[in-house]
Amino acid sequence: MNFSAADSELENAYQYCKSVTRLHAGSFYFAAKFLPESKQRAVYPIYAFCRHVDDEIDEIGDGNPTEAIEAVKRWRNYLRKIYPQINTVEDGLKTTDHRPKSKDQELVFTAWQDLLKTYKIPPELPFALVQGVLMDTSVKRYQTFDELYVYCYRVASTVGLMTSEILGYSDKSALEYAEAMGIGMQLTNILRDVKEDAAMGRIYLPEEDLRAFKVSEEQILANRYDENFARMMKFQIERARSFYQKGEQGIALLEKDSRFTVLLASRIYAKIMDEIERQNYNIFSGRARTSKMQKILAIPKIWLQTPK
């Protein structure tokens, strides 16, 4: 497939990626609005790519791993079309299908091809993200936090690392902090979505932690809250916050016009955990969420705390 596009087609591609981000990633979109226009435009295709991969695998569902693997093969071949320097077949995932599944996917790859003319996003990052999304079709439990870390890195830290190439940084050590922030954000997702994931038979919380706090899988699947569960959730929130704290240490290494956006994204996303605490860690009673007004009211304080 030829991913080249006329100017109008290219603009349509970027506008589509922006609309996907606005619709499905409110906090990310809110924070990105404080970036310079050129950086805003560039980060939207990254999110749109992530969303399309995730949605396609979710649509296939857990009952058809063969179809999910085929979808991953297609995505990896699409990536090879925009990364022509990649000419090896990783993990034996080979298919002759190089065509985007829909016009919307084609728009995402049109924007990506243009994006790569300006920003050097390492190919191993989108490849790792695709592999991470595939894990959801086959891995239902994580024995240890180390195992969960691999999943969080693939589906979230890779996004932060790709975005870092657009935000700009003065030292490569910034990437270590971006990885940590991605882990913290994905742990936040996991804590917020325990009830919804349990409804699909998934438990991301490490089994070693459940045992340590005397919380059973059956209890989570049945949405039963007790003091043991509350203590376990408190521990998980403390762990997640430690990753946010590490991630924020790298903000001073970013280009100045990117620093506020990253700190804002970090702080408003971490507020989800504040809401979980307000529920006394009972995520079964209702989904923790933050309002647009909470985000707006947080801006002045976060602005003052942004490294200058």
Helix content: 55-70%
The H-and-E topology, N to C, reads as HHHHHHHHHHHHHH
What's the count of strands?
0
Q: Give the low-confidence spans.
A: 88-96
Describe the 3D structure.
There is one protein chain. This protein folds into two domains: 1-138, no CATH class; 139-308, Farnesyl Diphosphate Synthase (Orthogonal Bundle). The protein has helices at 7-24, 26-32, 37-60, 65-82, 103-115, 124-135, 145-167, 174-192, 194-199, 207-212, 217-221, 227-248, 256-278, 292-305. It is built from 14 helices and no strands. The longest helix is centred in the first third of the chain and has 24 residues, at 37-60. With 308 residues, the protein is mostly helical.
Summarize the structure.
With 308 residues, the chain is mainly alpha-helical. It contains 14 helices and no strands.
What is the strand and helix layout of this fold?
Blueprint lengths: L6 H18 L1 H7 L4 H24 L4 H18 L20 H13 L8 H12 L9 H23 L6 H19 L1 H6 L7 H6 L4 H5 L5 H22 L7 H23 L13 H14 L3
